[in-house]
Amino acid sequence: MKTIKAGAKAPTFDLPTQSGGRLSLETLLAQGPVVLFFYPVASSGGCTKQACHFRDLGTEFESVGAQRVGISTDEVSAQKGFDDTQSLGYPLLSDTDGEVAKAYGVKRKYLTPVKRVTFVIDTDGTIRDVISSELNFTVHADQALASLKTAS
Fold first, then answer.
1. Is residue 2 predicted with pLDDT exceeding 90?
2. For residue 152, pLDDT beyond 70
3. Which of 150, 123, 138, 99 is nearest to 34 (CA)?
4. How many CB atoms lie within 10 A of CB 49?
5. pLDDT for res 1
6. Are 110 and 117 in contact (CB under 8 A)?
7. Considering the chain, what is the average pLDDT of its residues?
């Protein structure tokens, strides 16, 4: 399965959050650009580094009007535990059936449930940038931020 590319329309979704609510892509985009990052497993070492780097750059993302949103195939309870432990401060979405991951082309059959990929989505729903790295955990937030800054 191929990961969708920059220039494509972002697949829509409506998923539960770690706080028990629901979020749709449409609702998120009404508030500004979205940085949607897929991570394999909540609370694992690499995913914690990735998510915490997004947390630590929160002020910079706010300054360009962008929202950070994490997504994995973990249950809501695992997402809540991850957020409670790390004080992430942004939505974590639970894609337990992997349908959203499949729509974005990041679902896997082996190794981990999903590829570690970040999508920068403009307010019109177009994917501006795609960042993919399995082992460089901080490059996702850094490159997403750089992409957003070049557009502003």
1. no
2. no
3. 123
4. 13
5. 62
6. no
7. 93
Q: Decide if 88 contacts 54 (C-beta within 8 A).
A: yes
The C-alpha atoms of residue 37 and residue 35 are separated, in whole angstroms, by 6
Residue 39 · residue 47 · CB < 8 Å: yes
Side chain identity at 60, as an amino acid letter? Answer: E
Q: In angstroms, rounded to a whole number, what is the distance separating the alpha carbons of residues 120 and 109?
A: 25
> What's CA 70's distance to the chain center, in Å?
4
Active site residues per annotation = 47
Tokens of 35: 């940085």
CA 84 vs CA 18, 66, 78, 89, 129: distances in Å: 9, 22, 10, 9, 29
Global pTM value: 0.95
Residue ranges of domains in the chain, CATH in brackets: 14-151 (3.40.30.10)
- Averaged pLDDT, 15-38: 96
H/E/C letters for each residue in the chain? CCCCCCCCECCCCEEEECCCCEEEHHHHHCCCCEEEEECCCCCCHHHHHHHHHHHHCHHHHHHCCCEEEEEECCCHHHHHHHHHHHCCCCCEEECCCCHHHHHHCCECCCCCCECCEEEEECCCCEEEEEEECCCCCCHHHHHHHHHHHHHC
